[in-house]
């Protein structure tokens, strides 16, 4: 069964069972707690926590998808037979709550999720029942009240009243309803059969995992709790029961393809083999036959990084020295370093772009933008070659390169440790990779501490999800930026037309970031027109007022609202300009919003668009600042 058949059969199976098929979201997530999309449930997080309404958006409380994912933790492990950076996750989801008025679209929980998973594996994929084993959550092994009293919490502690009990319901479904023998059902603790939350808080709960020939292929998560981490980045959780629990499942396409195609590893499946074949022709053999294992590892790293880079660029990410852009730059420069190290003269980027378009374009049309993708890839190659020339001059200054020196050269010029070994082996002969990694780790810890300080860590005094501030001064700044963002959306619609719709926003004391639907890059003239319109509105000292209305009445006013957001029965309609009565006269801007806002636009100061960029297919991002 090839990968296209697996995707199609999975989605058809769940569509027949009342699931809305939702396209993959971008690898650049709306969720600020992660750099890149790491799981299939990430785009659905608002539905689990009540910030979006699945009945409104999907006409059902259930959805299924094939989601593009990327995990940075596996970058250094790529090259073996299992680890990847980019992968696809098959998932079915149920968000809890009642059905539509006609009875359709009802949510489900453990019973249906387990039965359907078993049915898909056995009846659709044709896997023999005897090959299947499962695991379930065996409970929290120690009473929580005792740990709470002692003040001692392990990395995986649960904080709350009493013990998190064994998942007897899942065990009984597998044993008594499906009929699996008891010796085929293993019980494990938190390390194996508990999931989440992603980021520092969110839905989480026990899991049941499905194995074929002792290889895990499917993880079914039952979101019974809302968890908050006891410390940033830790695993300890404070739990609260969710009134309408949901289901979140994930099955890796790559791992499933290995099993269904009867090959020893993912690089021999149809998801990789055509690319590996072309790379094998392009990459010269290493000098010694004894290095054939290394040769295969190089091919795997190139194949993984090339495929991942094309998808990241297609989704609007651009190489940079920070955050997600740094991840992309790291992948691309590793590819380019290998090109130097192994004397590769073939056009690897064009090979990869053609492969991804041919093999993935049917599912992900954004990868067909081959010209734009290649421009970004070759642009980074040009920058690296210039940095390489500067880096070579820099390392000539050193008689001996220490771990600190090596990291400085890497951070400043982009020359990784491995390339230093190739370029100046004598200068790094006393330096090992562990010392370099320790220096890198030290830098990450400093950066992480700075990031927590920047966003307030536990000290945020304003955090609406969209607005973040950690001091009264920052609250004043984000309030000005928030009102400016309303003006920005109104100005964009005046200049570009009603195609512009909000796709997300994020406001800190430094800037506003506004994502909107639009099919192309804005011209310099358009940027200036938008800027001028915003500043004209600011100079007019327009009043900012609101009126609270029932939601259906509010919609009739023509006010803009964010389609992804779930609104209460009564909403505030903010008007900038016009009269406080939303029906009396036109306003410069009118939107559903919960505030806070300045009282009049003159308090905003001067607005400046600092940057525009692509986020993904048909989505643009503008960053703006105020003086």
UniProtKB/TrEMBL annotation:
<dbReference type="InterPro" id="IPR002318">
    <property type="entry name" value="Ala-tRNA-lgiase_IIc"/>
</dbReference>
<keyword id="KW-0436">Ligase</keyword>
<dbReference type="GO" id="GO:0002161">
    <property type="term" value="F:aminoacyl-tRNA deacylase activity"/>
</dbReference>
<feature type="domain" description="Alanyl-transfer RNA synthetases family profile">
    <location>
        <begin position="1"/>
        <end position="627"/>
    </location>
</feature>
<keyword id="KW-0820">tRNA-binding</keyword>
<comment type="similarity">
    <text>Belongs to the class-II aminoacyl-tRNA synthetase family.</text>
</comment>
<dbReference type="InterPro" id="IPR018162">
    <property type="entry name" value="Ala-tRNA-ligase_IIc_anticod-bd"/>
</dbReference>
<protein>
    <recommendedName>
        <fullName>alanine--tRNA ligase</fullName>
        <ecNumber>6.1.1.7</ecNumber>
    </recommendedName>
</protein>
<dbReference type="InterPro" id="IPR018164">
    <property type="entry name" value="Ala-tRNA-synth_IIc_N"/>
</dbReference>
<dbReference type="InterPro" id="IPR045864">
    <property type="entry name" value="aa-tRNA-synth_II/BPL/LPL"/>
</dbReference>
<dbReference type="InterPro" id="IPR012947">
    <property type="entry name" value="tRNA_SAD"/>
</dbReference>
<dbReference type="InterPro" id="IPR006195">
    <property type="entry name" value="aa-tRNA-synth_II"/>
</dbReference>
<dbReference type="GO" id="GO:0005737">
    <property type="term" value="C:cytoplasm"/>
</dbReference>
<keyword id="KW-0067">ATP-binding</keyword>
<dbReference type="InterPro" id="IPR018165">
    <property type="entry name" value="Ala-tRNA-synth_IIc_core"/>
</dbReference>
<keyword id="KW-0030">Aminoacyl-tRNA synthetase</keyword>
<dbReference type="InterPro" id="IPR018163">
    <property type="entry name" value="Thr/Ala-tRNA-synth_IIc_edit"/>
</dbReference>
<dbReference type="GO" id="GO:0004813">
    <property type="term" value="F:alanine-tRNA ligase activity"/>
</dbReference>
<dbReference type="GO" id="GO:0000049">
    <property type="term" value="F:tRNA binding"/>
</dbReference>
<dbReference type="GO" id="GO:0006419">
    <property type="term" value="P:alanyl-tRNA aminoacylation"/>
</dbReference>
<keyword id="KW-0547">Nucleotide-binding</keyword>
<dbReference type="InterPro" id="IPR050058">
    <property type="entry name" value="Ala-tRNA_ligase"/>
</dbReference>
<keyword id="KW-0694">RNA-binding</keyword>
<feature type="domain" description="Aminoacyl-transfer RNA synthetases class-II family profile">
    <location>
        <begin position="68"/>
        <end position="274"/>
    </location>
</feature>
<keyword id="KW-0648">Protein biosynthesis</keyword>
<dbReference type="Pfam" id="PF07973">
    <property type="entry name" value="tRNA_SAD"/>
</dbReference>
<dbReference type="GO" id="GO:0005524">
    <property type="term" value="F:ATP binding"/>
</dbReference>
<dbReference type="Pfam" id="PF01411">
    <property type="entry name" value="tRNA-synt_2c"/>
</dbReference>
């Amino acid at each position: 069964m090839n990968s296209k058949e697996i995707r199609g059969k999975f989605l058809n199976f769940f569509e027949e069972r009342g699931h809305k098929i939702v396209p993959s979201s971008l690898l650049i997530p709306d969720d600020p707690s992660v750099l890149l999309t790491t799981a299939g449930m990430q785009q659905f997080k608002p539905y689990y926590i009540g910030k979006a309404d699945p009945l409104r958006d999907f006409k059902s409380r259930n959805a299924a998808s094939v989601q593009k994912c990327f995990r940075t933790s596996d970058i250094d492990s790529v090259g073996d037979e299992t680890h990847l950076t980019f992968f696809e996750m098959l998932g079915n989801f149920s968000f809890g709550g009642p059905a539509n008025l006609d009875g359709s679209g009802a949510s489900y929980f453990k019973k249906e999720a387990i039965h359907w998973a078993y049915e898909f594996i056995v009846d659709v994929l044709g896997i023999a029942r005897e090959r299947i084993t499962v695991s379930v959550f065996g409970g929290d092994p120690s009473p929580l009240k005792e740990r709470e009293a002692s003040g001692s919490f392990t990395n995986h502690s649960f904080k709350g009243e009493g013990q998190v009990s064994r998942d007897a319901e899942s065990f009984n479904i597998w044993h008594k309803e499906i009929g699996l023998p008891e010796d085929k059902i293993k019980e494990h603790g938190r390390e194996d059969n508990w999931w989440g939350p992603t980021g520092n808080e969110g839905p989480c709960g026990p899991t049941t995992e499905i194995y074929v020939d002792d290889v895990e292929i499917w993880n079914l998560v039952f979101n019974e709790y809302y968890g908050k981490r006891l410390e940033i980045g830790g695993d300890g959780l404070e739990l609260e029961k969710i009134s309408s629990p949901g289901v979140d499942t994930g099955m890796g396409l790559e791992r499933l393809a290995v099993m269904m195609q009867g090959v020893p590893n993912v690089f021999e499946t149809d998801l990789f083999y055509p690319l590996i074949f072309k790379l094998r022709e392009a990459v010269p053999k290493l000098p010694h036959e004894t290095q054939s294992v290394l040769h295969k590892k190089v091919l795997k790293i190139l194949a993984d990084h090339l495929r991942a880079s094309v998808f990241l660029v297609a989704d609007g990410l651009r190489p940079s020295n920070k955050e997600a852009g740094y991840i992309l730059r790291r992948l691309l420069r590793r590819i380019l370093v290998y090109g130097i190290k192994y004397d590769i003269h073939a056009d690897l980027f064009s090979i990869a772009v053609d492969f991804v378009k041919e093999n993935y374009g049917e599912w992900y049309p954004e990868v067909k933008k081959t010209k734009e993708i290649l421009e970004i890839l070759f642009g980074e190659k040009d920058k690296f070659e210039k940095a390489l020339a500067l880096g070579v001059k820099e390392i000539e200054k050193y008689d001996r390169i220490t771990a600190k020196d090596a990291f400085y050269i890497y951070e400043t010029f982009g020359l990784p440790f491995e390339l230093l070994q190739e370029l100046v082996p004598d200068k790094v002969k006393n330096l090992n990779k562990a010392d370099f990694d320790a220096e890198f780790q030290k830098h990450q810890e400093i950066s992480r501490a700075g990031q927590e300080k920047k966003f307030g860590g536990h000290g945020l005094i304003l955090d609406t999800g969209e607005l973040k501030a950690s001091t009264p001064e920052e609250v004043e700044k984000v309030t000005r930026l928030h009102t400016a963002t309303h003006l920005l959306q109104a100005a964009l619609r005046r200049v570009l037309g009603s195609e512009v719709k909000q796709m997300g926003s994020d406001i800190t004391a430094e800037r506003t970031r506004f994502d909107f639907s639009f099919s192309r890059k804005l011209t310099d003239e358009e940027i200036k027109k938008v800027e001028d319109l915003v500043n004209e509105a600011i100079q007019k000292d327009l009043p900012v007022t609101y009126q609270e209305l029932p939601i259906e009445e509010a919609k009739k006013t023509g006010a803009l609202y964010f389609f992804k957001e779930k609104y209460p029965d009564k909403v505030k309609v903010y008007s900038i300009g016009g009269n406080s009565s939303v029906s009396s006269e036109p306003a410069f801007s009118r939107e559903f919003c919960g505030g806070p806002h300045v009282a009049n636009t003159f308090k905003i100061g001067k607005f400046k668009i600092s940057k525009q960029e692509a986020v993904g297919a048909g989505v643009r991002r503008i960053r703006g600042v105020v003086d």
